[in-house]
Design goal:
about 160 residues; alpha+beta; Pnp Oxidase, Chain A; 9-stranded antiparallel β-sheet
C-alpha cells in the first residue's frame, strides 16, 4: 500500500468499515474476460480470515465462472464525502474501503447455508432471523474466504 498513513490494520476498524458498507463488487475472470458484479453481503471473521457470504440465483454467469475459476477479488467502500478545496487539484474525498483476493466456495451444507443467509440478513437489515431448509434451498449461497485483504481510510478530521 502506497499510503501507509491511510492503512487500516486493526480488526475493530475493519469491522467498522464492513458494517458501514452494504455492497461488495466481486471480480472474476471468465476465460480471458474480466467480469465484475456488485452483490449484497454478510461477513464474519474466523481467526484472521475474512469470510464474505453472498446469495444469488442457482444458475447464471457468475455461477458458471466460479465453477471454472474460483479465484476472485473484491472491493467494498463507503460513499464518503467530497473535500472541496479552492483549486480542483487540492480537492479529494473522505472514504473507507477494503479490498482483497480470495477463493469462492459454494455452500452446500444446509446448516452452513442457513448460517450464511442469517449473517447476510443481519448485516443488511440489522435483524436476527432464522431460515428453514426450504427457504435456504431456493437460492445459491457462496462464500469468499480471504487471507489477503487490506483496509484503507481517509477519515474526516
Amino acid at each position: 500500500m502506497r499510503r501507509k498513513d491511510r492503512e487500516v490494520t486493526q480488526k475493530e476498524e475493519l469491522i467498522e468499515i464492513l458494517d458501514s458498507c452494504k455492497t461488495a463488487c466481486i471480480a472474476m475472470i471468465d476465460g480471458d474476460i474480466p467480469y465484475n458484479v456488485p452483490l449484497n453481503y454478510g461477513y464474519e471473521f474466523k481467526g484472521d480470515d475474512l469470510i464474505l457470504f453472498f446469495h444469488c440465483a442457482k444458475e447464471g454467469r457468475k455461477i458458471d465462472i466460479i465453477k471454472n475459476n474460483n479465484r476472485v477479488c473484491f472491493a467494498l467502500f463507503s460513499e464518503g464525502e467530497p473535500i472541496h478545496a479552492e483549486t480542483p487539484c487540492s480537492s479529494g474525498y473522505y472514504y473507507s474501503s477494503i479490498i482483497g483476493n480470495g477463493t469462492a466456495q459454494f455452500v452446500e451444507d444446509m446448516d452452513e447455508k442457513k448460517h450464511a443467509l442469517k449473517k447476510l440478513v443481519e448485516h443488511q437489515m440489522q435483524v436476527e432471523t432464522e431460515f428453514t431448509d426450504a427457504q435456504a434451498d431456493t437460492v445459491c449461497v457462496f462464500k469468499v474466504i480471504s487471507k489477503d485483504y487490506s483496509g484503507k481510510r481517509k477519515p474526516k478530521m
